[in-house]
């Protein structure tokens, strides 16, 4: 496959943009590639500037659940743009989208719009701290909640430690209130709660982790978290930036039947435009400025373009509930197809699938937390990625991401993908 034009653009971009990219995962450095530069996309396909076509399993990291270039969204965008682009004032779609989210999500009384997932989690944590008048938060190793300071942590040595920053520029002081526990390990949470019974403001979790590959929480683990948060009066925050309106219309909360105190959204709710949102119980959300004393603001928050597109998409998803069944069917079809190939080839790897999210882990270790995820082979993934890439199949260029399915992906396309996965696994086997 020829990537000449992408190469030239990348060389130029590196002059003006750090690493040539505006978000690190786009660099494709993990898989020893240069970034592809997109020209356009349609349905399940994405086309780069060199004219190569790819079946796209990144889907803008989740938002393009209907596939690219969907007429509903394209026409809606044109329509709203003609009225004006930005006012920094209230528009009717803000109420509409907030109502859609509150109606969809268990226990959600009020919601505030922001401009990214990072802002949503950062703000939710501030509100939880202000509401409980406590300082510490618990997060889980392997979960990603955006790049705000207090969340850029990993656990230190030992199971029960304060986090250490994962990036230069984050002072230790900024993460000293962040405690890191093990995913799917309730005992690790209980221990921390018992140690700081009066100072855990919030527990934040991806109820189905999508940022260490797809790792679902055990239902008993989530129920246990709910009970511990009730017992210690801590705020349970579900980070549904990936899972919200994707795993189910009501997100992971609906999928598991568990109601958090707060939840964060992003990705899908903007239909591809930059949006985030956080919300929860009225008692908590009433503390947010100007209703209450906790400050949080945004000049372009709730901007008319993103609100209109989000409204169109959620309205569509609400009235087409069969779409979730079909997405889960496709996910399951791919999972069982890959598992059959693994068995035929005698490869003991793990496939995790949850609705329209799927990850193939290159390890023989059963996975329930980041400890096991770390045993995956990067070399095997790189070979796998390259083989598929050359065949016109675009996966996220990292072993720790999900494959995202959309309504536009067909069974025929998935059969093609399975054919090529067979080829890729043969190469992996020869490594
Ligand atoms: C993508 C993501 C975020 C961060 O969202 P941005 O819009 O990239 O800031 C937060 N939480 C989860 C679970 C995510 O997947």
From TrEMBL:
<dbReference type="GO" id="GO:0042286">
    <property type="term" value="F:glutamate-1-semialdehyde 2,1-aminomutase activity"/>
</dbReference>
<comment type="similarity">
    <text>Belongs to the class-III pyridoxal-phosphate-dependent aminotransferase family. HemL subfamily.</text>
</comment>
<keyword id="KW-0627">Porphyrin biosynthesis</keyword>
<keyword id="KW-0963">Cytoplasm</keyword>
<dbReference type="GO" id="GO:0005737">
    <property type="term" value="C:cytoplasm"/>
</dbReference>
<dbReference type="InterPro" id="IPR015421">
    <property type="entry name" value="PyrdxlP-dep_Trfase_major"/>
</dbReference>
<comment type="pathway">
    <text>Porphyrin-containing compound metabolism; protoporphyrin-IX biosynthesis; 5-aminolevulinate from L-glutamyl-tRNA(Glu): step 2/2.</text>
</comment>
<dbReference type="InterPro" id="IPR015424">
    <property type="entry name" value="PyrdxlP-dep_Trfase"/>
</dbReference>
<feature type="modified residue" description="N6-(pyridoxal phosphate)lysine">
    <location>
        <position position="267"/>
    </location>
</feature>
<dbReference type="InterPro" id="IPR049704">
    <property type="entry name" value="Aminotrans_3_PPA_site"/>
</dbReference>
<dbReference type="InterPro" id="IPR004639">
    <property type="entry name" value="4pyrrol_synth_GluAld_NH2Trfase"/>
</dbReference>
<comment type="subunit">
    <text>Homodimer.</text>
</comment>
<dbReference type="GO" id="GO:0006782">
    <property type="term" value="P:protoporphyrinogen IX biosynthetic process"/>
</dbReference>
<dbReference type="GO" id="GO:0030170">
    <property type="term" value="F:pyridoxal phosphate binding"/>
</dbReference>
<dbReference type="InterPro" id="IPR015422">
    <property type="entry name" value="PyrdxlP-dep_Trfase_small"/>
</dbReference>
<keyword id="KW-0663">Pyridoxal phosphate</keyword>
<dbReference type="Pfam" id="PF00202">
    <property type="entry name" value="Aminotran_3"/>
</dbReference>
<dbReference type="GO" id="GO:0008483">
    <property type="term" value="F:transaminase activity"/>
</dbReference>
<dbReference type="InterPro" id="IPR005814">
    <property type="entry name" value="Aminotrans_3"/>
</dbReference>
<protein>
    <recommendedName>
        <fullName>Glutamate-1-semialdehyde 2,1-aminomutase</fullName>
        <ecNumber>5.4.3.8</ecNumber>
    </recommendedName>
</protein>
<keyword id="KW-0413">Isomerase</keyword>
């Amino acid at each position: 496959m020829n990537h000449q034009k992408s190469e030239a653009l990348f060389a130029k971009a590196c002059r003006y943009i750090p690493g040539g990219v505006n978000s690190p995962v786009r660099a494709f450095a993990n898989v020893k590639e240069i970034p592809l530069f997109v020209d356009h996309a349609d349905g399940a396909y994405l086309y780069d500037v060199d004219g190569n076509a790819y079946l796209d399993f990144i889907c803008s990291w989740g938002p393009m659940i209907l596939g690219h270039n969907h007429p509903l969204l394209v026409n809606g965008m044109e329509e709203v743009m003609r009225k004006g682009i930005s006012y920094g004032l209230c528009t009717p779609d803000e109420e509409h989208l907030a109502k859609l989210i509150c109606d969809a999500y268990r226990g959600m009384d009020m919601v505030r719009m922001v401009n990214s997932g990072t802002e949503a989690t950062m703000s939710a944590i501030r509100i939880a701290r202000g509401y409980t008048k406590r300082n510490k938060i618990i997060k889980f190793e392997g979960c990603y909640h955006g790049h705000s300071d207090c969340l850029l942590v990993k656990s230190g040595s030992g199971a029960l430690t304060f986090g250490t920053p994962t990036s230069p520029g984050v002072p230790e002081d900024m993460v000293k209130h962040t405690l890191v526990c093990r995913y799917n390990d309730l005992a690790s949470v209980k221990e921390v709660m018992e140690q700081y019974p009066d100072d855990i403001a919030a527990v934040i979790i991806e109820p189905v982790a999508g940022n260490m590959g797809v790792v679902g929480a055990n239902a008993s683990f989530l129920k246990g978290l709910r009970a511990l948060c009730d017992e210690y009066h801590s705020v349970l925050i579900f980070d549904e930036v990936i899972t919200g309106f994707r795993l189910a219309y009501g997100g992971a909360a609906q999928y598991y039947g568990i109601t958090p105190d707060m939840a964060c959204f992003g990705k899908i709710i903007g239909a591809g435009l930059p949006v985030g949102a956080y919300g929860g119980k009225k008692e908590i959300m009433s503390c947010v400025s100007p209703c209450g004393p906790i400050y949080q603001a945004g000049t372009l928050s709730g901007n008319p373009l993103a609100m209109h597109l989000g409204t169109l998409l959620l309205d569509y998803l609400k009235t087409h509930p069969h779409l979730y069944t079909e997405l889960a069917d496709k996910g399951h079809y791919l999972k069982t197809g890959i598992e059959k190939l693994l068995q035929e080839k005698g490869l003991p790897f793990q496939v995790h699938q949850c609705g329209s999210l799927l990850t193939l882990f290159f390890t023989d270790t059963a996975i329930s937390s980041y400890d096991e995820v770390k045993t995956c082979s990067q070399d095997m993934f790189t070979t796998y990625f390259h083989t598929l890439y050359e065949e016109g199949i675009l996966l996220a260029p990292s072993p720790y991401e999900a494959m995202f399915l959309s309504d536009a992906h067909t069974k025929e396309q998935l059969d093609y993908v399975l054919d090529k996965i067979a080829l890729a696994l043969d190469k992996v086997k020869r490594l």
